[in-house]
Specification:
Blueprint: E1 2-6, E2 9-11, E3 17-24, E4 32-38, E5 45-50, E6 57-59, E7 67-72, E8 77-82, E9 91-98, E10 111-112, E11 116-120
Parallel strand pairs: 2-11
Antiparallel strand pairs: 1-3, 3-8, 4-5, 4-9, 5-6, 7-8, 9-10, 9-11
């Protein structure tokens, strides 16, 4: 199983980035895919999750209206479009896969990627 994130970088406040996560080694369509971030000195937090079948998506309140998760099941790839980025969005961003849905308050994942760094700074 592999989850490979890309697309991170340094961006100014108000800017945009699009993260990608290419998955292999498991039945991607059957899995919920999440984006999880971890800022220095803080625990990981799920920011978005998307269902495999109908693409139903949910978001952490702090990113609603700014971030959009999407997936391409044919390409086994999940994306995170991030707009109007803020300094507090600075973190390592990971994609994660889970066969069963878990609540934002107590998320569980079967697989994790290695992460891509997002830094928002002027």
């Amino acid at each position: 199983v592999q989850l490979v994130e890309s697309g991170g970088g340094l961006v100014q406040p108000g800017g945009s980035l699009r993260l990608s996560c290419a998955a292999s080694g498991f039945c991607f369509t059957n899995y919920y895919m999440s984006w999880v971030r971890q800022a220095p000195g803080k625990g990981p937090e799920r920011i978005s999750v998307i269902k495999g079948g109908d693409g139903d998506a949910r978001y952490l309140d702090s990113v609603k209206g700014r971030f959009t998760i999407s997936r391409d099941n044919a390409e086994c790839t999940v994306y995170l479009q991030m707009n109007n980025l803020k300094p507090e969005d600075t973190a390592m961003y990971y994609c994660a896969a889970s066969e069963r849905y878990s609540d934002f308050a107590d998320p569980n994942y079967d697989y994790w990627g290695q992460g891509t760094q997002v830094t928002v700074s002027s």
